[in-house]
Write a structure and sequence with these properties.
alpha/beta, about 40% helix, single chain, about 250 residues, globular, seven-stranded parallel sheet, 6 helices
Length: about 250
């Protein structure tokens, strides 16, 4: 019998799929997965999982996805509250984007794109999710950040857009946590740094990473699930690495 539900947004990412795979082994946890492409979940067609496909991550699509969450099985949601949310969207590079190594590489267009994906879109999800998560049941809401977002820990420079977007995300989370402490005390916000994980995002930068510092997605998923299971509901935003250790903002 399903007792709680976990919502995974950006569910097509490598770490998101690892989280889903681990939770699939627990028959008391229902899954709601959201992405533009959910073909990787085609083998998961049981009552434990609800799949919501979105065309994009614009405001209107997010609003429709929220409606889908509440309508996919209203009775189930009432009986089995959402107790974990993972927002896994993010971009470091793609065919058009590359992390800047120097000032001459900085591009206004690229900056706006990275900022929208890494900071704005997670905030739109949080805005729309808060009304349906607010209640008496504790709920952790984890957004994937990065250690390079730390202003005090920036000793190397470079990666202007990515650093700025994740720092903006952290500020949004910290600010939202202050408000939620007043109106939605059951929600705990987490900015999570997974470490260098073997994913397409890190592929171009893995050659200088020591073997013991390049993590599998299964390892990161296990670490994260352990963190959210044991974290204190303290009304503050936490900025944590894969070990559960705090990172300076």
């Amino acid at each position: 019998m399903i007792k709680t539900q976990t919502l995974i947004i950006g569910a097509n990412s490598v770490i998101a799929k690892a989280i889903a795979a681990k939770l699939q082994t627990d028959t008391e946890v229902g899954l709601i997965v959201i992405s533009r492409d959910l073909s990787c979940y085609s083998g998961m067609c049981n009552e434990q999982i609800n799949k919501i496909t979105v065309p994009d991550y614009q405001s209107s699509s997010i609003e429709q996805a929220i409606i889908g969450i509440t309508q996919c099985d209203q009775a189930l949601i009432n009986q089995a509250p959402i107790t974990q949310v993972f927002i896994c969207n993010g971009v470091l590079h793609n065919a058009q984007l590359k992390p800047e190594k120097r000032l001459e590489d900085f591009s206004a267009q690229a900056f706006q794109q990275v900022m929208q994906i890494n900071a704005l879109i997670p905030m739109l999800w949080i805005q729309q999710l808060t009304p349906i998560l607010t209640g008496n049941t504790p709920c952790t809401l984890t957004v994937f950040s990065a250690r390079v977002a730390s202003i005090s820990d920036n000793h190397l420079g470079g990666w202007y857009s990515y650093r700025a977007s994740k720092a903006a995300l952290n500020m949004l989370l910290k600010t939202a946590a202050i408000e939620l402490f007043r109106r939605a005390k059951n929600i705990k916000l987490i900015a999570f740094h997974p470490g260098t994980t073997d994913t397409p995002l890190s592929k171009p930068f893995q050659q200088n990473v020591p073997a013991d510092k390049l993590f599998t997605s299964d390892f990161v998923a296990a670490q994260l699930l352990n963190i959210v299971e044991n974290i204190e509901l303290d009304g503050e935003a936490s900025y944590l690495d894969w070990q559960g250790k705090s990172i300076t903002w």
